[in-house]
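User: Continuing from earlier, I have the next pair ready.

Assistant: Great, send them over.

User: Here they are, in order.

Assistant: Folding the first of the pair now:
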Amino acid sequence: MFDLDFSKIAVVSAVALVVIGPERLPSVARTMGTMIGKAKRYVADVKAEVNRTMELDELKKMKETMETAARDVEHSVHTAASDFEKDWSETTAGLSSDHYEPLAPPPPTYENPGKKWRLKRGAMPHWYKARQGVRTKALSGAARVARFRPVKRSEHV
């Protein structure tokens, strides 16, 4: 824009010192600095807005291309599905229901277990219950203390 080197800046500052005067020069320089800063910020905001609009246009174009691609895929899926349905109906048209055997047994239906959990729990092996810590008998507090009390070994001499 402006080709300013050190000699031109020195000439401009000397002229400003003579015209404005040494008393008002600092306040004028401060005002000019704030105005230049505001101008730079305004130019940066305008540039950012232009970049945003350009990116928005690019995104709109990309969105349109993706939508057309999705529509094409959807159309091809629908045509393939209709072709499959037509082929399937032609293939199964000659079959009657008395000759048809299901390929797999029907899935099992859910039955509420009710009170069978006691049976299942009783069918568990004793060694598994012992390993898992399942209580098989009700113990009183004193019996539990006696059971888990460390064994005293008497010394035989």
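And the other member of the pair:
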Amino acid sequence: MSAAPDLAKDVWRKSTYSGGNGGQCVEVARNLASASGLVPVRDSKDPEGPMLVFPAASWQAFIDWAKAQRV
């Protein structure tokens, strides 16, 4: 099993689809993907709350799929 990523060095990036109206916002700690192979994802409205952690390859597959769905 992999060790947990060091979140003390995380750099969170808010989704470009997150608006400024307090709606659904997602942040991704992309800087950890290259070092740990994991991508933490959290709710930007609750930065101290829970997060999901995905394997980098799975997260990239999701991003590729989401981009392909845009019209």
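Worth noting for the second one:
The CA atoms of residues 11 and 28 lie 8 Å apart. The mean pLDDT is 79.
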